[in-house]
Design a protein that fits this description.
Helices cover 77% and strands 0% of the residues. The protein is built from 13 helices and no strands. It is globular.
Length: 345
Amino acid sequence: MKKVLLPLLQYGFFLGLGIFLVWWSLHEIPDSEWSKFKTSLQSARYWLIIPVFFLLTTSHVLRTLRWKLLMEPMGYRPSFLNSFFAVMIGYLANLAVPRLGEVLKCTLLSRYEKVPVERVLGTIVAERAFDVISLLAVFLLALLVQFDVVTGSYANITGMQGNTDKTGGWGGWIGLLVILLLGAWLAWVFYTGRGKALLQKIAGLLRGAGEGLISAGKIKQRKLFFFYTVAIWVLYIGGTWMGFYATAGTDQLGIQVAVSGLAFASIGMIITPGGIGAYAFLLALVVEQNGVDYAMGVANGTLQWFAQVLIVVLVGGICLLALPIYNKKRQHENSGSHPAENTIA
């Protein structure tokens, strides 16, 4: 019962945080600017979702190819389509329950490609490590091209900018509350004797991460891996920049704003399920620091978030339907002959 209840409570907390940020984003729009918010959405260039669709889908393809490179040193070469299906279905699952997609895509690959789940999990940890490094690099780039904007947006979030912040001065108190709650939870874990089990889980994750990172260090095509990583984030920046053209007011923003916006909006995708509330809120703060009305920033952030979710739902849904069909056809083609090897001889 507890194993089911705790994840539900955790999910409920972050979903509630996302809903709160949706309300807060809209609440902070002054009454005099509501017309701008509505007009921005009504006059939006919705056709731009088509090129954004291709940009983001291409990034998912490159992420699949990069994942395959991580598995090669361990002796596994799963098919591209099954790997891509697993990646997109994982993204789809993450919209419902954060981090469920990471386990699900490993499970799917194990089922259809006979790759051990525990081995693939190590590559997922390695992938996340490279994503964290990449996000830090984007933040550093944002600091180089828009130092004042990045520091100003951070000040807004943490409540250090006086009366002009969008958190009403509560950002610092919220951060302190989160730290206190985390400390109380850790104290409860060790007080009730669950500390040993927690440490064992952490040790298991570290072992998996170590194996994944070791496999990353053994990649033969390192230049190609680096290219995929850089290209993925370039496509993210391009998608964000193109998304600015969708609404009035933000259509004059340059690529440097896209870099800063992506840096903060990516945090939003991490802290709430699917980035609900947080993505639009954080992107709006960056846009506002670049001289655009907050209401227009929220409108654009909401539209960009919706476009990303729609793309995942469409492509992920198609992959969910195509996965069993593709593998049934594949099994039929291989019947009567030796099945294709998915390992390196």
